[in-house]
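Suppose a classmate hands you a notebook page containing two proteins, each written out with its sequence and a corresponding row of structure tokens. How would you begin to make sense of it? This section walks through that situation. The first entry is reproduced here exactly as it would appear on such a page.
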Amino acid sequence: MSSAAEDWRIAATRGTTEVISIPDYVQRLGCKVDGINLLEIEAYLKKSKIARKISGYAEAGSSQGMEDFKGMRLGSTSKTCLPLQVVEAFMLGLAGAREDGRIIFSNISNDAKADVEMKYLLLNPSTTFREIVESARSVILAGGTMSPVWKMSDVIERVFPSVPSDKLTTFSCGHVIPQSHVQTLMLTKGPSGSLLEFKYEQQSNLQVLKELGQVILNLCNIVPRGMVVFFPSYASLGSARRAWEAASLLDKFGAKKKVFWEPAESSAVESTLKDYGEAAQCSPIGWSDKRTGAVLFAVVGAKLSEGLNFSDDLARAVVVIGLPFANKNSAELRERMHYADQMHAKLGNAKPPGTKDAGMELYENMCMNAVNQTIGRAIRHRSDWASLILVDHRYAWKNIRGKLPSWIQDGVVVCDTFGQTMKHLGSFYRDKKRGE
């Protein structure tokens, strides 16, 4: 594999990406590899569970407090994917359904040279689920963001294509919180009355970013305790930060709330969250201190938008800036969209006039799935409450709004003016303050 990667690195230009099929990749590995029975290797890896055993041994050693020669405690490896696990997963992919897998070669540039990344991409999850479906008496597929983004018909087509419809049962339930505990606002216009839209080409527009800065400043004035603001990408967050710094808006934010930023390094996440949590729940000190809480700027789909809980005072408002559409120039995304179109045509599903094709529908669903994951960081238990603020007029579009979680659909308010936004927020927080 290293030889094939090196040959590709020499032949390719820096920054390029190539997607190839599994048979083509095996052919590049040479005739010796082509004669290896990958199914036998797969059987051995699964039966011996060697990668899991080694991983378990490493975790056990870490939990017992292994120390290096300087007496410093080693970091936990519980979240680290060991090299053997990576190799095992890659080989299992090669041994799987070849027509549904792809190998992606990518050049990763650094100061010295361009290293090569090889990635296995599974386009059809049904091949993985088939073994489970055939051996189990019943299978429960549960998730918090499958509905309404992923229509159940789409789930069935992609995961259980061979299961008869009379063998499938679907169920969806609401949220545990009362409707009065969540307020969802769609901001269509800023304080100056300009339309709020954050497409890729506008995310570095100084005028647009200054208007957004005024939106954030007003929110800092009215949202109590903690407020988390999510941007669609690191690039857009960086552009906003530079523009606000040049316009002295960061100082104004800091006068209202202590400002935190998503750290570049994963190792700094824990300390950032700890400091943010303390600041969010801290009351003003003395008459001259006007700050009430903290604001944390983060990125959708990055370190702070999934798997973390911003409960209670940690997020009395979650703000999502723009729609976090993925990069259409990504080779992986193009392959996924192309495969979705192929499978849709293969199943004989005709596209109704005026509707998106399967690839574009997948593209939009991926975006809204990321949004739903992000706004779910705020409401974490029955007594929790928060405002969900979606900043972009496109959220009011029927096709976008319809893909928000069902538990907030009935309470969505589309604000035609920024004054309406502040009025709704003020009323919501006054009600919650009286109820405390």
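The notebook's second entry, a different protein, reads as follows.
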Amino acid sequence: MSAANNGGGPCGACKFLRRKCVKGCVFAPYFDSDQGTAHFAAVHKVFGASNASKMLLRIPAHKRVDAVVTLCYEALARVRDPVYGSVGHIFTLQQQCYMVENSIRNLHAPRKQVFLNYSSSGRNLTEKLEVKAH
């Protein structure tokens, strides 16, 4: 993980920032040296290292894991979609839910049978049609 934890290399954040990972590094428990570097790069690009550090220090230690996950998710979403970020993804998911709900509603809509009488070639035919009730 980090020099603060296992005596290994720096955490992903310190590796990205090219600095020594000191004991008590606020990023070390959350950004490992492998995937943590890529995640921290996005967090750094969107929020900045100093702002991310300040945010984490203001949060109680038992809630920091959730905060880091949220920071990473928002940062990666913002890198993918600079205008809407995670809101664009949420909007897309809402639209998909709306479409699925409409499909389900249409499948379960009550149906009524309509009988049509018409004359064709001198014969009376009764045709049974199934029509959706609105």
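A careful reader of the second entry would note: Residues 12 and 108 are 52 Å apart (CA to CA).
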